[in-house]
Amino acid sequence: METYDLIIRDGLVVLPTEVKRTNIAVKDGVIVEVAEHLVGDAAVEWRADGQYVFPGMIDVHVHFSEPGRAHWEGFETGSQMMVAGGCTTYFDMPLNGIPSTVHKEALLEKANIAAQKSSVDFGLWGGLVPGNIADLRELEKSGVVGFKAFLSASGNEEFERVDDLTLLNGMKTIASLGKVLALHAESEAVTSWLQAEKVRAGLVSAKDYAAARPVLAEVEAVERALTYAELTGCPLHFVHISSAAAVEKIELAKKRGLNVTVETCPHYLLFNDAAVVEKGTVAKCAPPLRSQSEQEKLIELFKAGKFDMISSDHSPCPYELKDPAVHSFFEAWGGISGGQFSLLAVIQLAIEYDIPFFKIAEMIAAAPAKRFGLSGVKGSIKVGMDADFAIVSLKEPFRVTEDRFFAKHKQTIYNGHTFPCTVVATMNRGRVVYHRGSFNKYEGKWMKNKRKEDQATIFK
Ligand SMILES: NC(=O)NC(NC(N)=O)C(=O)[O-]
Ligand SMILES: [Zn+2]
Ligand SMILES: [Zn+2]
């Protein structure tokens, strides 16, 4: 009789094109059988009756700020928070830590720290900033998942936004390396011009902040980036897109053959500008939370499958940096802290809008794996893939409270929110890293992006 390391029995397994009650067997961290009749023993027999087994989330967008600002989050608390939310691989952004991840030494230093502290597998982004084009090749060779640049000020003095020439040259180089460039797309000219006008007039409320970062600022930046991508052949990925008009531009570009993908974040789908009025700076982000009607349009696009993937953009900070007694809304740190809740949020939306779970699984796991060079290794529940699972119960709602949020700082827009589901357990390469509020120490592995052919193909 066959002996396995782990068998998950009788779960409702979210497979690539259907949900099916079946069993999964794991050996040496890899899925070796998915079968309705599975005979054999295992060191761990896990009963998942009535629970859903999702592929572990691959969250391509978090900021853990280590080294340099580990007091903002760090890999230890950051990764624990992610596994508590069913994430089995996250990609850390190249900014908010010191140094920024813009050369090989910074990348290797970060990788070394993460390998010691991360509870779960991870990938690392490299940055594109003015002056580092000569470093991109070494970053690529060392295994970055892709490159990231800001078209508007990042809010972080160690990570400069790209000027147009850097962007063109950077895109040309990144295209030649067969990699993807991720962009924070808001127009610097438009946002800084509008912000200066507001500040000069003493108008610094949450509403003024939103007015200084309008949908048009996003659309202008997206259009310019698409034009440059057409000129250079560079594959693009737009992070945290917050408007229907920007998605429309991206859709048109896809139709004319450009290699481009788009993500949005759960906060743009679950909340709108009313949350900023109600909750204050904890709900401040860039681009800002939009009007209710824009939110409704984004949900329609989400339902229609127009977002290739969903990421958290977990961007935490110590509370002092958002303290309204100290900082105006413009000055407060921008970023939503909520990496733990992305999978729960999309499952909530799937339930509310009747979206099949396998489509959700594609957005949170299969598509990010395919886009960033991990296909064939991670991203779906199939024989031969890493045994990365999020076990979810729809019978237990989850109310967010400070003691159930595992980020370093407990302030979050999600505080008090109740999800209709709970992450019961998370498994990374067959090991239980999280189970009902407790963690098992486990060394996450650096997932290097080696599969150039993934990025070279047009995505959809
Ligand atoms: N420096 C940041 O972490 N910025 C982040 N901040 C947000 N989204 O408000 C981001 O992704 O742009
Ligand atoms: Zn951003
Ligand atoms: Zn971000």
From TrEMBL:
Post-translational modifications reported in the UniProt record: Carboxylation allows a single lysine to coordinate two zinc ions.
Cofactor comment: Binds 2 Zn(2+) ions per subunit.
One Pfam family matching this protein: Amidohydro_1
Positions bound to Zn(2+) 1: 61, 63, 148, 313
Cofactor: Zn(2+)
Domain called Amidohydrolase-related: residue spans: 52-433
Pathway where it operates: Nitrogen metabolism; (S)-allantoin degradation; allantoate from (S)-allantoin: step 1/1
Gene3D superfamilies, alphabetized: Metal-dependent hydrolases, Urease, subunit C, domain 1
Listed name of the protein: Allantoinase
Gene from which the chain derives: allB
